[in-house]
Known about the structure:
flat
Amino acid sequence: MFLLCPLCALCAENDKAPITDIPGIINLSDAEFASGRGFDITGTVINFRRCFPKEGVREPHYSITLHDGEHALLVHGPMPPGTRPGGVIRAVGRTDLRDGIFRNNRAERTFAVPNAAPAALRTVDVTMADLADGGYEGCFIRVEGTVKEVFTDEVDPAYVYIVLNVGGSELNAAAPREDFKIVAPVGATVKITGVYSRLLVSVRRFMGPLLRIVNPDDIVVTKPMSSDLSSLPECPSPVHAAPKEIESWGRRKITGTVLAVRDDDNRMILKSGDGQFHLVKLVSGYAPPAVGARITAGGKTCTDLYHINLAQALWIPAPGPAKTQSDEDETEANGFLQNEHGGIAINRFGRAVRARGKVIQTSGPVRGRTRLYIDCDGTAVAVDLKATGKTAGDFPLHSRIEVDGICFMEIDNWSAADSFPHIRETAVVTRSPGDIRIIAMPPWWTTGRLVAVIAVLALGIAAVLAWNHSLSFLVDRRSRELLREQISHAGTAMKVDERTRLAVELHDSLSRISPASAAR
Length: 520
């Protein structure tokens, strides 16, 4: 019967009793998950995050992590009012395998369970050998390893991935970047607690098993990356070196002068003693040095195919005089982004430039960044305002400004997955409050005002035409009324004249008859 009617089979699957425990959902196959199995589970809330509104859903949508003491489950749906981490809720809904990849536990209804005792969470310390048999699916585990790499997911920038070296094998961990800062510098030894899964890796399924970090305290640094940079070898300055060779150098140090610090406080341009420019990306949460300071920075070597850069770096003061300006000559705005062949002048990176242009876009503080964009000879250039103490609102749209600063180009470092990095944005990083000036306020006759004036004139003309039409209608109506009155008066006058004539004739007739009667 089911072979003849697949829909009947699906209905029978949906009519199964709802799953009432978290392991029952975790152990479903993809086919069972896609069939829409019902569930009715109760668990303790670990945390929850508000998600983007779903189409057709009016109430807020949440991503809720529940646990039963040993296993954890991610549920998507409404959140009972007043619920906090540690509270117990009941979730009723169905499973959904979206696009054949994403395991989605859709809670149609959730209820708070008052006076229920939260389950005690049990965490298991494991090694990579323990995980080989796959017996920890959905469990809370704790692993210790060395941080090999930290990167933001370009598909979903809300998540950061940490690549751990655990006993010679790699394990990937993921955490939401907006919930807490990731304090896992490359080279440090950390203990990470999270939910282990081979099934919830979605589009990253080819990365292998995933450790999903839930709380900010789930990353503990047990052996910090060494801040003693004196033992690091100097970074060489070869004329030619392959990207893989540069990455193989490991951690090196570079001594030089800080030319600029980006508005995210995480990246700076360093000019070494041999005149080379380097992009140094500091460890998350590590305070940057002052512009002009002479420092020694140590970090993992990498390259954007134009420069040798340092990632996950630390810094210490270095002997030598501090500088307040780059020793490079300032370059005028006209064509400073282009070389003689019409391409991007990559040699401007790190040099002091002067850019002039019209403000074409402004933006408020976004993740610590306050920027505006100017049209510089047909190219949009970002202006980093942090050092000036000003905001984008201080510069009216369409005004012309002049900016002194350091040329900064947004270029990703080389990786085996992206063998040819591209220049994504060019910016001018200011260094002091006097680095930006308004040289011309926006003209009063802006496009918006011109459109407004034309609209007002058009409305005025339309009003005049409408008034004229109304007057014409009134005059025509009044003329018809006057004509009707004149016709009525003429008819009355004709009646009076006719009656007068008849009266006169009657009077005359009577006058002639009266003498004749008297003669007889």
